[in-house]
């Protein structure tokens, strides 16, 4: 990967011998490996059996989980927050595991719509929940730094599964708690 970064830097007309760039290919390769570390992780490894018996059958919400991802179309960042809700059926997921599941998929080349669906499906599969709702709000550098250059645009995407899809009351409760309803 380091050699490829060197070729890219040279292709834009820069001098790799310039003091500020001497180690840049190595640093860029290391950074890119970190930014895409989701490919090296599995859900099983991250969840690590952190499902705990619970009598709760009320909505569990983890709000404002920050996320950083790379757009698969331009390889530019999109940055935002993810809200995850589920209704348990006998087991609850360790709190940090929700954030880790978000990170597994965010740290891959991605589009926001797929990311939202992947998180929701995984939470549903792992917990056996009655329903799952996921909403992501993000700013996309591919829209801000290039192209239309719109600095204040925010993309919102949602995935509603099980009771979050089937029951308007459940969906409304989730949205009301998040204060996303207008």
Could you give the topology of this structure?
Blueprint: H1 2-11, H2 24-35, H3 43-47, E1 51-53, E2 60-71, E3 77-87, E4 91-93, H4 95-106, E5 109-110, H5 112-127, E6 131-140, H6 141-144, E7 155-162, H7 163-166, H8 168-178
Parallel strand pairs: 2-5
Antiparallel strand pairs: 1-4, 2-3, 3-6, 6-7
Helix pairs in contact: 1-2, 4-5
What key attributes describe this structure?
182 residues; alpha+beta; GTP Cyclohydrolase I, domain 2; 2 domains; five-stranded mixed sheet; two-stranded antiparallel ribbon; 7 strands
Q: Using the coordinates shown, work out and report the CATH topology of the largest domain.
A: GTP Cyclohydrolase I, domain 2
Annotated CATH homologous superfamily of the largest domain: GTP cyclohydrolase I, C-terminal domain/NADPH-dependent 7-cyano-7-deazaguanine reductase, N-terminal domain
How large a portion of the residues is in β-strands, by DSSP E?
Answer: 25-35%
Enumerate the strands of the largest sheet in spatial order, edge to edge or round the barrel.
5-2-3-6-7
Count of DSSP-assigned helices: 8
Instruction: Determine and state the CATH class of the largest domain.
Output: Alpha Beta
Portion of residues within helices: 40-55%
CATH architecture classification of the largest domain: 2-Layer Sandwich
Give the CA-CA distance, first to last residue.
47 Å
